[in-house]
Specification:
Elements lengths: L1 E2 L2 E2 H21 L6 H21 L14
Antiparallel strand pairs: 1-2
Length: 69
């Protein structure tokens, strides 16, 4: 699906990769996540989820979009 000039599937993949990098960085550095990092990870997850649902085909008879896989 395209939203304006954005390929939503590619954008969701990029958000997932970015979130994974934010999760791995503190572990690789031998430290805990900062509060700012935790918030960033949550925001990236929320954006990923929202765009994945926006890009999923709707299930009209149920009135909602099925979860993306």
């Amino acid at each position: 699906m395209k939203l304006a000039d954005i390929d939503v599937d590619e954008f969701v993949k990029a958000l997932h990769m970015e979130r994974s990098a934010w999760i791995k960085a503190p572990k690789e550095q031998g430290r805990r996540e900062t509060e700012a990092e935790k918030i960033t990870i949550c925001m990236l997850a929320a954006l990923e989820h929202a765009f994945a649902n926006a890009g999923a085909p709707s299930d009209a008879h149920l009135g909602h979009n099925p979860p993306s896989r």
